[in-house]
Amino acid sequence: MARFLVTGGAGYVGSHVVLALRERGDDVVVLDDLRQGHRQAVAAGAELVVADVGDRKNLTEIFANWKFDGVLHFAALSLVGESMREPLRYMAENLSNTLWLAEAAVKAGCDRFVLSSTAALFGLPEIIPIEEDAGFAPVSAYGESKLMAERGLEWADRVHGLRSACLRYFNAAGADPQGRLGEDHTPETHLIPLAIDAALGIRPPLTVFGTDYDTPDGTAIRDYVHVTDLADAHLRALDVLKQGRSVRYNVGNGNGYSVLDVIRMVGEVSGRPVPYAEGPRRAGDPAVLVAANARLRRDTGWSPRYGSLEQVVRTAWTWRQKHPHGFDGVAATMSATPVAESAMASP
């Protein structure tokens, strides 16, 4: 049985990865300050430490208390728009927290590190689908901060032998097919939950930013990868790192769907129309972002189990129907076994 430290493990993608690790039989320690995460999202049997990943004293104590076989790092600032208002904060926090965590792992003799990275590294790509070796040209401070974090990990490998897997997400979407977990952000910025909430009348009508792109229906096209498939990719990346080499993977379905495709699918799945209005393009939004995922498939045997847009939307709809207020009011854990919250945790 292996033990892993998961930072941001109470958040959207992190909680799905923790659940997958627990179901595989691994021990998990979750480090999360709960600014965006939810206690209720932490899988039963995981140890929860409520603390700031940027506090080096916390990291020293955690690595002294447990011996880890690997680290999975999800805790980060991740709002593109906010990053353009506070670029220095994003670059400083996302880079420094990654490097302090990597340093703590190196000192403790932990040699596997998985980074939650992003397709925002590629900016406005000219060739679709996007290969891992496409040129980097971030158009947001968020993308730049993740690019710097990846480069820091390259040096940690070169100098200290810390093997890292950087997974460049495209659009994480959907919810646990068994309904145990879902998407609950404040603020919510992702299209599918916003469309669902608009259909439910929880939020005002959507704004479709740009209807004049060079795409079949004029709206932007994105690659939506189901969060459960994304979690599976993380477990497979951990296994690749056992081979003693660092890797970089683009993680997406390899299929693109437009904004209007998503709106239509939410309407079909929910049986409710999605109200929306047309708006101008947002600066820096590419017309099309679709992943080339051949390297991940070849190296790990990964393939999407929930690859259709209908599957993605249906799981998200089921979660939101059952939890119209997100995790508010949800029991503290997903089973009768309580989450063990560390005595060293600080509120």
Automatic annotation (TrEMBL):
InterPro entries: Epimerase_deHydtase, NAD(P)-bd_dom_sf, UDP_G4E. It is an enzyme of class 5 (isomerase). The keyword Secreted does not apply. Its EC number is 5.1.3.2. The keyword NAD applies. Pathway: Carbohydrate metabolism; galactose metabolism. Signal peptide: none annotated. Pfam families: Epimerase. Its cofactor is NAD(+). Residues 5-252 form the NAD-dependent epimerase/dehydratase domain. It catalyses: UDP-alpha-D-glucose = UDP-alpha-D-galactose. Coiled coil: none annotated. Keywords: Carbohydrate metabolism, Isomerase, NAD. NCBIfam families: galE. Homodimer. This is UDP-glucose 4-epimerase. It comes from Teichococcus aerophilus.
